[in-house]
Amino acid sequence: MSSDRVLVIYYNRLYNPLIIRSLKSEYREVIALYIDEGQVRDIDDIELECMVAGADKFIYKDYRAQYAEHFLTKAIKANAIYQHGYFLSAALSRPAIAEAAVEVANELNIDYIAHQFRGNDQVRMDMNIEILNKIPIASLRDFKYDENIVNSYAMKYGIPQEFGCNNPYSTSENIWGLSVECGPLAEPETLIPEDAREKLFEHALSATEPIFLSLGFENGIPISIDGEKKSLYEIIEILNKIGKKLSIGIFDIVEDGIVGLKTRAIYQSPAAHILITAHRDLECYCSNRHENWFKEIIDKKWVELVYSGLWYDPLLTHLNHFIDSMNQHVNGEIKLELGYKYANVCSRTSKTTIYDDNLAIYNCGHLYSQNDAEGFAKIFNIHTKQSAKSKMRQKL
Q1: Residue 268, by phi and psi: left (phi above 0), alpha (psi -120 to 50) or beta?
Q2: What angle do CA 46, 52, 55 make, to 5 degrees?
Q3: Are residues 325 and 194 in the same domain?
Q4: What is the DSSP letter of 162?
Q5: Are residues 101 and 226 in the same domain?
Q6: Are residues 278 and 382 in the same domain?
Q7: Which of 56, 38, 67 is nearest to 110 (CA)?
């Protein structure tokens, strides 16, 4: 392995040129890598920026299908949502970026991988790159660059003004969602400023008639939309386009970060919101009460581990085995009504459901007699009655 060559992951237009120039003073060869997870960018512009900044080579890696198939399928089956509004768009993206970068580093026989992440993301990237046997370089941290240095550099070298670049906001985007934080949003009492609203609602329409569509699932994974088979990535693209127009999946939350500090962020995840709404309903429809109760516990722990960057933790592997097993019978179709800022399930069908029409309307026939309920109610209530009596005696 070579110690005088480094692979630098392109992430932020504001930081990238400065980081490449800094790495050039430390390493003989700097190779810029752009990993595509569905973020909308002009690849030719990115390559030009990297080469002008001093990169010796530029590599584009299309990781969209792998990101959807290897990471987002697991998130859907785990009904992954953190603290009621964050669908883990960045937390899922970081181990995928690390995995893709290590693949390229192995091909090029490179040891060092530099990234441009801060906050929670620097922890996620450092851990996952190290686990995959490479040496991480947290460029912004290691070179001790603060916002003033970065912004001064951007002005000096004419880095274009754009949302999330040369302004107070920090943004992150991929096919699973967009996040906006920092700047005025750091104050929890501040309403979303107009420039941030323009970014979040740029595709939104005014009030419109609801849209109805059907999603087909097999083993808990979305496989079709309105009866037409699609790859998961294609389904996400379609739902994002529809959901953004209807302002679906936008959440303003204050979350607990990896080290416990609270941060505020605005998240836009239309496809994630729609898909997990549909999956959760179908999973509940196809599973019994004990499975559903326990699955909520499993899902919560899965989300906590992924949020914390522990993609390769053995416990997550065990949880994935349970989730995969339970989702073997999550098959069927969910029909949704999509309207302005909402996504509601309005019907569901499945050949693997345990739902029985006769039981649902108390027409049990030979299955059991309604008279059996009297004995069940008495036995089921014994411990509650005893507890109530004990508390009453304590008051006397």
Answers
A1: beta
A2: 80
A3: yes
A4: B
A5: no
A6: no
A7: 56
Is the CA virtual torsion 81, 84, 89, 93 positive or negative?
Answer: negative
Q: What is the mean pLDDT of the chain?
A: 89
Task: Sheet containing 250-256: give its strands across.
Answer: 170-174, 177-181, 262-268, 250-256
How far apart, in whole angstroms, are the C-alpha atoms of residue 138 and residue 143?
8
Domain that holds residue 61: 5-157
- Quick check: helix, strand or coil at residue 66? helix
| Amino acid sitting at position 255 | E
Q: Given this model, what pLDDT does residue 161 score?
A: 55
| Total of domains in the chain | 3
> Residue 349: its pLDDT value, please?
97
**pLDDT of 309:** 96
Place of tokens 């490179």: 110
For the chain, what is the radius of gyration of the CA atoms? 25
Residue 1: per-residue pLDDT: 47
Say what percent of the chain tops pLDDT 90: 64
* Distance separating alpha carbons of residues 5 and 109, to the nearest angstrom: 9
Please indicate whether residue 365 or residue 81 has the higher confidence score (pLDDT).
81
CA–CA gap between residue 140 and residue 151 (Å, rounded): 13
- 249 and 386 fall within a common domain: no
Residues 211 and 153 in one domain: no
Query: Is residue 57 predicted with pLDDT exceeding 70?
Result: yes
Task: Determine the pLDDT at residue 160.
Answer: 60
Helix (H), strand (E) counts: the chain = 16, 14
Structure-block tokens of residue 316? 């997550």
What DSSP string describes 372-387?
HHHHHHHHHTHHHHHH
Residue labelled with tokens 């496809």 = 271
